[in-house]
Amino acid sequence: MRDDRFCNSNCPFTRAIGTIGNKWKPMIINVLGNRSIRFGQLHAIVPHISRKVLTEQLKELEEDGLLERLAYKELPPRVEYKLSEKGLAFLPILEYIKEWNLKYEVALIPKETDYQYGSKTKDDAPVF
Amino acid sequence: MRDDRFCNSNCPFTRAIGTIGNKWKPMIINVLGNRSIRFGQLHAIVPHISRKVLTEQLKELEEDGLLERLAYKELPPRVEYKLSEKGLAFLPILEYIKEWNLKYEVALIPKETDYQYGSKTKDDAPVF
DNA sequence: ATTTGTGGTTACCTACTAGTAACCAGAACA
DNA sequence: TGTTCTGGTTACTAGTAGGTAACCACAAAT
User: Fold this and answer.
1) What is the domain count for chain B?
2) Residues of A in contact with B45 (CB under 8 A)
3) Hey, how many other C-beta atoms are within 10 angstroms of the C-beta on A19?
């Protein structure tokens, strides 16, 4: 998921993109916000992600110092994830992206299927 | 390359990530900056990208209103790409990412190969 | 007559991403 | 006794991203 060629570049921007330049990581960071969230909740909130991919992404985010993993020695197990200082510092950037999208996004023509069974939102991401 | 499930979400952030949430698009936007650049130059500057993928990404960026394509009716052909207002508005976000990375990035242990032949930069992205 | 330059497009193939389903521990509860 | 709960891991598989190489038009230069 990380792009090693990008991560080994001597351009700091290229390295940053190599680290967080995919769709899952910004989503996860955004969902985390400044909360502490358990694995199961994360899986329920992040749209369309499988447990396997979520595990992988969380592992990479931890390796890159964006979040902290806190595992309680209980049964059944409990693991909480929260952003590190580095991860928290990334949140404002996500806010700018939201604002940018709201301001410039071209209006979408909704598909007919979006209305076929009334207002279905089950497949949609919650709005934070 | 775009993620349709993300793009059809009713969360503006999710839609934004569905549109520009990969590694190529931020790179291309960053390389474009506020210049007007030809396809060949773009291909030479954006690190590691193939002509095929560059074509695809540029097409999507144009469809999403982030850039403008100006084709001159000459032979050999000449095509220039430049950011639209929407694309230009995205540049500050990339600046924040650069700053964020410089501030928080964990120091990498350089590989020996990085030094083997002196300061080689041919595989690296230019620093803007 | 042939080569060069430009901005693609296309077919083909490989390598990786990501989904699915099964499985695990071990305590609590019915 | 069996089921449930949690946070994974693993093996297998489908789908797709992306690389490579060949090809195109046609003018100008060699």
Assistant:
1) 1
2) none
3) 23
